[in-house]
Amino acid sequence: MKRSHIIGIVLIAAAIAIIISTAGDASSYVTFGEAYEMSKNGDSNSIHVVGELPKNENGEVLQIYPSADKLSFRFVMSDEKGKQQEVFYNEPMPSDFKRSEKVVVIGSYQGELFVADKILMKCPSKYQETTVNAKM
Questions:
Q1: Of 12, 25, 39, 60, which has the highest C-beta tally within 10 A?
Q2: In this structure, is the dihedral angle defined by the CA atoms of residues 109, 114, 118 and 120, taken in order, positive or negative?
Q3: Each residue's pLDDT expressed in tens, for the chain with a length of 136 residues
Q4: Within 10 A of 35 (CB to CB), how many other CB atoms are there?
Q5: Sequence-distant (≥ 6) Cβ neighbours of residue 135 within 8 angstroms
Q6: Distance in angstroms between the alpha carbons of the first and the last residue of the chain
């Protein structure tokens, strides 16, 4: 075999190995109930839960509890099935957190409390369609 063929085969094998190793880290969105069951069964991997922040009729988020030093906070979130769960995040509250439409928390259960390692948000201002009036 030519040296270039051998190098090509090695590169393809390395690419396949990388794809297989990263596929094991992929996770899907689950509800708080499913996340709790996974935690009880010994699954210590990061779990993705998608949901919304409960709001009043004025659109204000109801249950956010910052710590005294503002370096962490707790909040209540409803998953896609409507189950509400308190979530703890050991970082300052992200900007525009109160304005977000959907929230994805990535973390795991510690006892009865869901502890988020990361929070992803969908803010409405970034995704609203704007119309342009062009007069000709």
A1: 39
A2: positive
A3: 788 888 889 889 988 888 777 665 556 788 888 888 888 887 767 889 999 988 888 877 778 888 888 888 999 999 888 899 999 999 998 888 888 888 999 998 888 889 999 999 886 655 455 555 556 5
A4: 22
A5: none
A6: 67
Query: Counting Cβ atoms within 10 Å, is residue 75 exposed (0-12), middle (13-18) or buried (19+)?
Result: buried
Q: How far is CA 116 from CA 6, 26, 61, in A?
A: 46, 17, 18
The encoded tokens of residue 37 equal: 């069951």
What domains, with CATH codes, occur in the chain? Answer: 28-125 (2.40.50.140)
